[in-house]
Amino acid sequence: MNLSRRALLSASALLLARPRTVAAQVSPAAPDIAIVPATDARPEPLILCWNENPYGPSPAARAVLSATAPLACRYPQSEIGLLLEALSKKEGVSVDHLALGAGSGEILSCLGALVARKGGSLIAAEPTFMELPEYARRAGVTISWVPVNAQKRHDLKAMRAAVGPTTRAVYVCNPNNPTGTAEPRAILREFILSLPPDVTCIVDEAYLDFADDPAVGSVADLVGNSRRLVVLRTFSKLHGMAGVRCGYAITRPDIVNDIAGVRMSTPNIFAMRAARASLGDLEFLADTRRRILASRRRICGELDALGLAYAKSQGNFVFFDTHMPIVEFEQIMLARNIRVGRPFPPFDTWCRITVGRESEVDAFLAALRAVHAPALRKAV
Ligand SMILES: Cc1ncc(COP(=O)(O)O)c(C=O)c1O
User: Fold this and answer.
1) Is the C-beta atom of 174 inside 6 A of ligand 1?
2) With the C-alpha atoms ordered 317, 54, 131, 349, is the resulting torsion angle positive or negative?
3) Which of 8, 46, 127, 220 has the fewest CB within 10 Å, making it most exposed?
4) What pLDDT is attached to residue 43?
5) pLDDT at position 33 over 50
6) Over the stretch 125-171, which tens digit does the pLDDT of each residue have?
7) With left for phi above 0 and alpha for psi between -120 and 50, is residue 323 left, alpha or beta?
8) pTM for this structure?
């Protein structure tokens, strides 16, 4: 099973702390994939493994982050209401339908704790984003894994069939991390409405802003119909504020209260002020989305040219088949100074590559061509 992000962060901190043993620079002309000793002048690796958005934060959010430093001595209480008001306008729900978290990951953990409190099981796709299943598992919840289907999409029929008397919650990450696939809104809506009323459906829309399939959309409007539905959003992806930590849930007021009861903290004053500013920076948001979608298309075009299979991505990352053990591919890319996604069992030859800046995508594609094009030439 996948490692939790926390475990991975510590593992990657260890990796970063290790003396560097590789130094091949990212270069379209790199002749081979040999690992050579590092020099002190070696630049930091390109980080294409965490699904971050390197264009952020928006100019408006950056200005607010800098201007907020003198206010860091203040508790952020008044900011909570202001951000809730702004989100209430954006989402068209009253503020009592909104719960804030220090990242949506914190809310996922809260939901894991709440599921554990009731006992029973959680249904999740395999593979999916691990924060909720991993937290819930550690808190004593049984996880029922339902493999993704042939298109690497949630198998909603099988997930529905897995619902039983002990099921407390179902997690649907839409678009899914790491596969990038997304369920059409109409199908997901039908699935949610088919669930028993005491089963909580947690729909994680962290990447929804990057969807360009018109059939894919939010199910947040279903929150009003008294279902136990929790829709999660984050400022870490399109808004490019992963390091600042701000996310929120749209759900029923009683579930908002339950979340508040197990939450550790609120977002800090920087996060809440920057989030409000970012919501208003429409030019940045549109431009970022356009650039990421263009680069995603470019990556998929190159994968097509190289004959490498990939899942249809609606996120800021692409999941593709490297045709070699992923741990080997990771090392080959690291030798070219690029960090790519880790293993996501059971797809042990598949890599999740984050759509970085245009120049980072250039570097990754050059490295990918260097690895795969010779193999293709040999095959001809
Ligand atoms: C699907 C999904 N949901 C939630 C998160 C957590 O986001 P954050 O805690 O940064 O808001 C991530 C982070 O990568 C994610 O991939």
Assistant:
1) no
2) positive
3) 8
4) 79
5) no
6) 999 999 999 999 999 999 999 999 999 999 999 999 999 999 999 99
7) left
8) 0.89
Evaluate: CB of 104 within 6 angstroms of ligand 1: yes
Please name the residues in contact with 147: beta carbons below 8 A apart, sequence gap of 6 or more.
125, 126, 155, 158, 346
Structural fold of domain 59-281? Aspartate Aminotransferase; domain 2 (3.40.640)
pLDDT beyond 60 at 16 = no
Quote the ligand 1 centre to 86 CA distance (angstroms): 21
Can you read off the two tokens belonging to residue 177? 């991390």
User: For the segment 274-328, what is each residue's pLDDT rounded down to a tens digit?
Assistant: 999 999 999 999 999 999 999 999 999 999 999 999 999 999 999 999 999 999 9
The one-letter amino acid code at 51 reads: N
Tell whether ligand 1 has an atom less than 6 A from the beta carbon of residue 129. yes
pLDDT at residue 37 greater than cutoff 50: no
Q: Per-domain residue ranges for the chain? A: 5-56+283-379, 59-281
Answer yes or no: is the C-beta of 109 below 6 A from any ligand 1 atom: no
Residue 9's pLDDT is 37
CA distance 278 to 291: 17
5-56+283-379 maps to CATH 3.20.20.360: no
**Per-residue pLDDT tens digits for 54-88:** 999 999 999 999 999 999 999 999 999 999 999 99
Measured distance CA(27)–CA(4) in Å, rounded:
33
Residue 124 CA, chain-centre distance (Å), reads 15
Mutation choice for ligand 1 from 5, 131, 205, 316, CB with most ligand atoms inside 8 A: 131
